[in-house]
């Protein structure tokens, strides 16, 4: 991703957070992580991330999603004998989120997925989350999610986060954080 | 604490969250925990708590504090060989917080403490937190905090929470959650 695009996305995410009443320091706003997962299609597949805290025990982030942006399918695998993998709770603060995970596929899902990305999304049990609603995903469970038409802001509470160990369904994906 | 007082405090906390743009479900608003720590002086010592998630690995809460309300001095002791005690990150979302912990006492602290509560506050290193600012407390470290003149809303991210094991400096304190 070009630096200029990352910077534009960062400003857009920053504006959404501000409008939702979520306050960042100047340094935090300047360091918003813009992830395109190496697919170079940030308008459709991507995530804008503010990491408040990530230590060996817990992690807290704000996830910003532009309208209909998709976080691609992945799971958080076991990391050691004592660590069954990252467990995470998604709490929607603003907008709407369509979350998909393992289980009985939902007949008429609300996600809208460009044809070229469809083959990398294999789980279709739908959970619709509106502001104030949340869902906790067990470790090592496939999931992906898409924001609704207005975009979304999600608070993620979790055990320790180690992006590098995430397993994505799409083999082309590289989970490399992008900074300015 | 009388049920009617708890209900009044719950409505007041709920209003503050709403004005700060933090959305709760109806059930969450009805279940806000009102803690007076058994001191029966909620206007001066107390905390209003929304627990979003608390599992064996992580915990996320919203803490609401009325103007100049104090969360009394306590620490989170080691719980087992593998658990050094609760570690927590306080992120101020709204208002101002004066946090006190172990270390060199601050010469002219900004807290205002009624005389009768003063003897139970023994640590005076001051950390001032404004919206967007946060502080991570190591386990087993004495701390207490007071909201500023407008009150405060704090997001607490932490390892697993077990209120019953907290050690308070004031022996009269009973950490019993109060529901309607």
Largest interface in this structure:
A-B, 28 and 28 residues
- Evaluate the radius of gyration of chain A: 15 Å
Strand content of chain A: 35-45%
How does the overall form of chain A come out from the CA principal axes? Answer: globular
Beginning-to-end CA distance, first to last residue of chain A: 10 Å
The secondary-structure class of chain A comes to mainly beta
Uncertain parts of chain A = none
Please state the average pLDDT score of chain A: 95
List the quaternary state of the chains: homodimer
Describe the protein's architecture and organization.
Two copies of one chain form a homodimer. The first copy, chain A, is mainly beta and 180 residues long. Helix content of chain A is 14%, strand content 37%. Chain A has helices spanning 3-19, 26-30, 115-118, and strands at 33-35, 47-54, 58-65, 70-75, 88-101, 125-129, 134-137, 143-159, 167-168. In chain A, strands 1, 2, 3, 4, 5, 6, 7, 8 and 9 form a nine-stranded antiparallel sheet that branches. Chain A is globular and about 40 Å long. The interface between A and B is medium-sized, with 28 and 28 residues.
């Amino acid at each position: 991703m070009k630096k200029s695009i990352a910077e534009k996305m960062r400003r857009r995410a920053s504006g959404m957070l501000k409008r939702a009443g979520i306050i960042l320091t100047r340094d935090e706003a300047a360091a918003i992580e813009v992830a395109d997962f190496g697919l170079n299609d940030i308008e459709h597949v991507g995530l804008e991330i503010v990491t408040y805290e990530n230590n060996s025990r817990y992690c807290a982030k704000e996830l910003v999603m532009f309208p209909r942006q998709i976080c691609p399918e992945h799971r958080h695998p076991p990391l050691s004998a004592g660590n069954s993998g990252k467990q995470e709770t998604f709490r929607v603060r603003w907008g709407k989120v369509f979350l998909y995970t393992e289980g009985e596929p939902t007949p008429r899902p609300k996600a809208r997925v460009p044809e070229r990305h469809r083959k990398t999304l294999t789980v279709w049990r739908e959970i619709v989350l509106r502001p104030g609603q949340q869902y906790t995903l067990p470790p090592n469970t496939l999931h992906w999610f898409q924001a609704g038409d207005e975009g979304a802001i999600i608070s993620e509470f979790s055990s320790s986060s180690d992006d590098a160990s995430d397993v994505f369904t799409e083999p082309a994906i590289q989970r490399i954080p992008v900074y300015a």
